[in-house]
Amino acid sequence: MTADVSSPARGDRRSxxxxxxxxxxxGAAIAEWxxxxxxxxxxxxxxxxxxxxxxYSVIVGLAGRSQERSGTSDAANMTVPETAVGGTLYMAQFxxxxxxxxxxxxxxxxxxxxxxLLCVPVRGRLLAAKSLVITLVLFAAGVLLAVLxxxxxxxxxxxxxxxxxxxxxxxxxxxxxxxLALAAVVVVGIGAVxxxxxxxxxxxxxxxxVVPVGLMLTKADALVAAADFLxxxxxxxxxxxxxxxxxRGVALLVLAGWAALALVAGxxxxxxxxx
Length: 275
Prior knowledge:
The protein is mainly alpha-helical.
């Protein structure tokens, strides 16, 4: 008795020539998801971000309680969500940036970009899939970091600081998640352009931190105003909400614009220079 090989089994997606077909964007996204979670560096960077966030919240919370005991007025202005924002902005985000840089520039460093492009030859699809996975993971990580930071800050601050409402806590939590997600996309685009860990990290810090600080130090009104629309300051306005020349809605649009610009630049370089 011989098997009938004239028609494939149901669910077996094969072309008429017998070679596997399918995959598309969903397959590319699944591949990026697996690549992200099957390397040790992802877990190390996320653990580092958690440790930094908790450490910052403990230090600031204890400092606030100490200030209250000594009668320092600054303690009364501290809030639990702003402590979590500070932990993300000054500490945890650097571990997150390293994670994102490894996900794109690390592939060039190890030579893994070659197999990635062979499996997903459509360059735009590869970059979009990587960006989608990174965005989802970093949004969830941002929410987790916000919750941890606020919980630790509430315990260490005790009765110190200003009272906050539930809606304020939720707004800050979502803002931290959105900031890390969009900042991650910016890093993906920079990584596709720079194609090296050192170049990606350096360019990211220059764009997100060095240039805005430099412009603000000039004290020139036009330059200070321009600095507010760079991705770093826009992220600050997004997370804090009540600071800066514009609110969270505009800050979100500014960050989204920088993320789109970074992806376009990364796609252009990826098409021209390949692996």
